[in-house]
Amino acid sequence: MKTRWYKDAVVYQIYPRSFFDANGDGIGDLPGILEKADYLKTLGVDAVWLSPCYKSPNDDNGYDISDYRDIMDEFGTMADFDKMLDAFHSRGIRVLMDLVVNHTSDEHAWFKESRKSRDNPYRDYYIWRDGTGPDKKRPPNGWRACFGGSAWEYDETTGQFYLHLFSKKQPDLNWDNQKVRQEVADICNFWLQKGVDGFRCDVITYISKPADLYHANQRDVVVGPNWKTYMRELSERSLGRYDTLIVGEAAGIDFPRACEITKEGEDLLDMLFHFEHVEVGTVCAKNQKSTDLRKWKGILARWQALPETSWGAVYYENHDRPRSLPRFAPAGPLRVPAAKSLAASLLFQKGTAFLYQGEELGMTNCVFRRADYRDIQSRNLLRDVRRYAGPLGAYIAERHLRRYARDHARTPMQWDDTANAGFTTGTPWMKVNENYREINARQELDDPDSVFRFYKDALAVRRRYIDLVRDGTFSLVDAANREVFAFVRTLGEKRLLVVCSLSPKPAGCAVPADLCKGKATLLLQNTEMPAAPRETLRLAPCACAVWYIEAE
Predict the structure, then answer these.
(1) Can you name the residues that pair with 499 across neighbouring β-strands?
(2) 106, 161, 172, 255 — which has fewest CB within 10 A?
(3) What pTM, to 2 d.p., does this model score?
(4) Cβ proximity of 454 and 500 under 8 Å
């Protein structure tokens, strides 16, 4: 039976490869995560979400799975996983896995069988189609893969194309095959019976494909024709039998559809990750934010207006996006107050809050050279532009990657100021950000004014006022302000006023008179702020504050 425990929760995403290396091979691992369990308990999170740790050849850093019931050799063993799971549970921290079932690796046993012949029993586990044109060697349609090139790969052995919406080494599963759907349910049950508390479901809305792929629009896979049927079936066979959190990655989803597929009682998704707020604006290259704040907070406010029957996920960072500094707030000399201001603005919105590793330290984007990139998306882009666009194209692509590459979020966690940021005693699998001597966990744990300590305090305040954070209404304050993100959460006579400047300059905020009346308590601040809000607040660069206000 679902208790909806996640409505009170803050979830911390761990990217295992970059979190902590316990054996010195340069790659993060499960024993390393276990070693840092007390760190996460100290921070005060309620759950962790692990990016994939299954067996994988690592074409897409674990999102290409070759065995769903085993652990990647570099990460450890199933015994290591069980120890880690028990350690988190003993500390009151739940554990979510990353469920990647739109596709597998081409090295999965199912696909190895599927490509052997057209009449193989596993043939229909994947999406195969004849080609077009006189020689039947043109792709069935013009769909493009997310990592570049055609979404179809020709297989000489059987003379057909298979569909891959991502890498050619990530063939899409055929969810129209009921055997595939049962396999997925069995995989989910395997992990849930171990005690896993739920799943983040990778590109889950893409699993159902149109029947006529020769004439379908690629937009038709955003939420495919049989998606609801297949998700309800998966809930009946697995997910709905446990007290789970099921959050879906939903690229391309719009607000009305999100309300529909997160509705309680529909047995679809408990919540979803939309991308609208992380796709607005640009990342600035020189430590100053350039996101249009008024547009950005308007998007956030719209997604705060989910109906009572739905629930939302709120986040600024994950493994697929560059760091929020300097995207949404300045970095450079203002990094510390800016990171705190972003923290307050995130943690007091309505919804389950998700933090990404290093966000609690104020980690920033890294300065990469061409050879430093490790992500398939980055490497494919550099390869293709060199091949087809020449030196100018390569220059433009490198400028793009400096701002947008997924690699920025995947640099090793910065634990201390020793070699390799304390991440490994070996050679790290990818570049460590050179600012680790300034930004690291050891220094921030000891500093009462650090970003980490602010996150810890903010999480404690969030728990203390969880009724307001969970159930209160959300309204923007001074909505037209281009420098300040301010809002009020209201539940009966109780209110939380959150004011966050994201400006590198002094700013002002107009506060409604009714919020300046009543009994006010200043709960959080990152610089000196008045004990009670005023109708005209003067804010230092990146200043933030949270007040609790009760009617007299």
Answers:
(1) 486, 545
(2) 255
(3) 0.96
(4) no
